[in-house]
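thread from #wetlab-drylab

HS: before we spend reagent money on co-crystallization trials with thymidine-5'-diphosphate, can we at least see a predicted complex? here's what I'd submit
DV: go for it
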Amino acid sequence: MVIDTIQRQMFYRVSNNIDEDLKIKGRFIVFEGLDGAGTTTQTALLANWLDANGMDVIPTKEPTDGLWGGIIRGILKGEVDAHPLSLCHAFMADRIDHIQKLQSRVLKLDSPVVLSDRYHLSYLAYQQKDTNKDLSWLYVTQQGLPLPDITVFLDASPYTCYERMKRSRITSERFENIEALERIYEGYISAIDLLIREGQNIKVVDGSLSINEIHEKTLSLLSDYFNK
Ligand code: TYD
């Protein structure tokens, strides 16, 4: 209980300062989904498409390749032991540094599209599962952060993602079993529900489709936004 209060106060203090200095002055789109849903592939495809269509694009991702991102990957691979709340703080620290670095990159271009492979929705889904905190607790810790204009959620089932991961690669041992994926998926659904109620723009794309079909669906969902 005491730890909970301290954590909350710490986050409040961080959050209260965030909106003053951290903003992204460009267009901001995020891909989200379970491990294996295809966020990295779709981020790369959309980045190439935007570039080929003459738009300035800044592809990026979380966890980042910075200091905190390195620490996070060590924890996720099980190389470093860390309490779930400490991992939660690491994601927060990584996100703050991420936005700060993006700011200077954005200012060098004329209204670029920042395209991120994961952002705060991952945090609301994965850290919900990992810390057992209420969604509202986690949501408060994110207040003051720049919001994406659009988040595209690649809706692939835990089973589909698990099978894809088994076939293709090794990522986070912490989140890489079917029970964990099921809980994270539930976390995504509740977080999406909350963010939509809070007025955020979240598009859902059927993540069981082929890579090209998902790309085409994404383009048609985003066409109005790019034609503005
Ligand atoms: P992943 O997309 O697999 O990154 P990479 O391939 O570069 O290592 O992301 C790593 C994991 O981090 C993934 O399982 C989702 C998780 N994650 C969180 O738990 N919280 C967050 O806030 C973010 C951004 C990611």
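DV: Residues 30 and 151 are 5 Å apart (CA to CA).
HS: ok that's useful, forwarding to the group
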